[in-house]
Amino acid sequence: MRIRNSSLARLQKLKERLDKDENVDATYVPLEYMKLKSDKMDFSPSILNYIFVHSTFEKLKAMKSNLELYEPLRFVMHPAYNEKYERHDEVLYVPDKKMNDFMLVTAQANEKVIFLDNLEYACKPSQGVQITEGQFSGVVGRVKRIHGNKCVVIPIRDTAAVAILDLPRKHLRYLSDEEMEEIESASDEP
């Protein structure tokens, strides 16, 4: 979900409120330790104005009806097309596997993990891989070149993308297009 006019303090209060709500199973905000001022380091959201909420669409609609508590929350919309290629907007839904991989990669400070700003490049199709060894074992992503280096990128539909730098080739299992499609659509329904 997207938060209108977010600040870290407001985001933390909203996250605490959501975590207590019976309609919400879990929330996640990727934070990174960064320099905010010339002499001050602190945690800051890696993706401004976003909070990932694990719940059903019906429960989220019911929760959002309480405008007093959840007025700043908005659904993230993305374009979708029907069988006649007519465009309509849908609420962004992230499959559990992709979200779990994203959380595994972003949950801890690591100099080998970077958030990508160029989402157009990060979300373009490329060779699918699964990491087979190390702390990111099991993560599925796509191979991209960033600053001349091969990286594994985990994109979340035009919203966010994170890259794992400097993975040895022997730790990657290349996936066929069919395997990638099966993994990416395994839990594609909200």
Which features would summarize this protein structure in a list?
single chain; six-stranded antiparallel sheet; 26% helix; two-stranded antiparallel ribbon; 190 residues; globular
Structural description of this entry:
This protein has 190 residues and is an alpha+beta fold. 26% of the residues lie in helices and 34% in strands. The strands form five sheets. The chain has a six-stranded antiparallel sheet. The protein has a two-stranded antiparallel sheet with strand order 1-6. A two-stranded antiparallel sheet has the order 2-5. Strand 7 and strand 8 form a beta hairpin. The longest helix has 13 residues, at 8-20. It is globular and about 50 Å long. The two termini are 14 Å apart.
List the helices and strands and how they pair.
Layout: E1 2-3, H1 8-20, E2 26-28, E3 31-37, E4 40-45, E5 52-54, H2 57-64, H3 67-70, E6 73-74, E7 77-81, E8 87-91, H4 96-106, E9 113-115, H5 119-122, E10 128-131, E11 140-146, E12 149-156, E13 160-164, E14 172-175, H6 177-185
Antiparallel strand pairs: 1-6, 2-5, 3-4, 7-8, 9-13, 10-11, 10-14, 11-12, 12-13
Short description:
This protein has 190 residues and is α+β, with helices and mostly antiparallel strands.
